[in-house]
Amino acid sequence: MTDTEAQHENRSADEGTRLETDSLGSLEIPSDAYWGIHTARALSNFPISKRPISVYPDLVVALASIKQAAARTNADLGVLDREKADLIDRACQRVIEGEFHDEFVTGVIQGGAGTSTNMNANEVITNVALELAGRPKGDYAFLSPYDHTNRSQSTNDVYPTAIKIALAFALRHLLDELEQLRASFAAKAVEFRHVLKVGRTQLQDAVPMTLGQEFHGFATTLGEDYARLSETLWLLAEVNLGATAIGTGITADPRYAAAVVTHLNEITGLRLETAPDLIESTSDAGGFMSFSGTLKRSAIKLSKICNDLRLLSSGPQAGFGEINLPPRQAGSSIMPGKVNPVIPEVVNQVAFSVVGADMTVTMAAEAGQLQLNAFEPVIAHSLLQSVTWLTQACWTLRVNCIDGITANEERLGTMVGSSVGVITALTPFIGYTAAAALAKTALLTGRNVADLVVEAGLMSRDEVDKQLSPARLSGLEATTMAIPIIDVDAEAAD
């Protein structure tokens, strides 16, 4: 027995029941429940995820917004009594404002292409409307979840439209957190703009740069992700509302599709458009795949940044030790004093989950058959979870990690001073061959590169100091007017 089923039984025992009937028979429903018989059957049929659809408030609001738009449209078209439409409208508004979300109890993973979710919404909204009318819950002869709240609709156009609206709402939160995270990295770039360090390629010493440049690069890549994710809004804008069962619009007034989207845009503040081919739109999940792919791109790049942060902060004695991450918790149950990079680690794991969810979305999209994709519930769950987790990952990375990072400037300075990589800056002046020979000597002897260059008579001390200044080593100041490269072979010939 699931937790929700147990709660169902407890409510029935403690507070009484009402009898509801469908084409399969009758069931006792807890008297105080706003959901009804279809939802009750779903609770019994799908004890899978242990997570109700209410874990995604944006989806609940999206469903209520669609039902509200439908009620207004049906009233305008004269296919639904204005009084009944107004009751449904008012009930939807209460759900949109955050009430009754705990009544959306159907599991996020379900068979039936989302019918249980659609009916859960129909039943809750209908019973709230009945309450507004001063009537008892379950008085479906007066107001029906099928004939009135679901008028001119099918799960097959309501559910995919609700997913897209919910993703658009959730994406706003993600973009807000992503921008704040980008700004945090940019602030650190300014803070560390004069801190020189050794850059690395393939985990080997390369050439100098500033720590500020490194963090600026992180900020730039997050800015690119913000732009790419913003572009996906158009993937969510085309909806099949009005298609009803398979795209032919059966049971809906011919004017309904265009009118309901107009109302829905007013309610949601989005810019939704009716798909030009409702039959194609009802069966196609390509937009969800593209959206998922962009989420995966962002997650992978964020994970790479976290990998870098863990490397740069490794140590504190036997690792890179270039930066300090804020200590968030004791790192070991056996090793006293150990502190681990737990915030980057949790963001890494979010990225792994997003990658897995993308594969789930891909397979679900591929498995659709004929006029409908029956697997949109797992698509919805995968995408909404990915957006939600990425949003929270950006928040915790910013607040609990990036804002508190400090630089180990003394250690960084020591590493730059002893690095043979600085000789790369002198190759335009002494040539690659001479530079390679001196780099080898410096490594073998541990001597300072600048001293070796001066002793070899290849450059004066002033020239070396000028070219090895922090500004020039990091590229902040352009290197100009290089002295002619010494041709050792030509001098020997003379």
TrEMBL record:
Q: Which residues form the signal peptide?
A: none
InterPro entries, A to Z: Aspartate_Ammonia-Lyase (IPR051546), Fumarase/histidase_N (IPR024083), Fumarase_C_C (IPR018951), Fumarate_lyase_CS (IPR020557), Fumarate_lyase_fam (IPR000362), Fumarate_lyase_N (IPR022761), L-Aspartase-like (IPR008948)
Q: Which intervals hold domain Fumarate lyase N-terminal? A: 26-356
Feature: compositional bias, Basic and acidic residues: 1-21
Task: Write down any Gene Ontology CC term.
Answer: cytosol
Can you give the residue ranges of the Fumarase C C-terminal domain? Answer: 423-473
Identify the PROSITE patterns for this entry. Answer: FUMARATE_LYASES
Q: By its UniProt entry, which Pfam families does this protein fall under? A: FumaraseC_C, Lyase_1
- What keywords are assigned to this protein? Lyase
Q: Where is this region: Disordered?
A: 1-22
Which GO MF terms are attached to this record? aspartate ammonia-lyase activity
Q: Does the keyword Ion transport apply?
A: no
Quote the PANTHER family the UniProt record gives: ASPARTATE AMMONIA-LYASE
- Name of the protein this chain belongs to: Aspartate ammonia-lyase
Species this protein is from: Labedella phragmitis
The beginning of the lineage is: Bacteria, Bacillati, Actinomycetota, Actinomycetes, Micrococcales
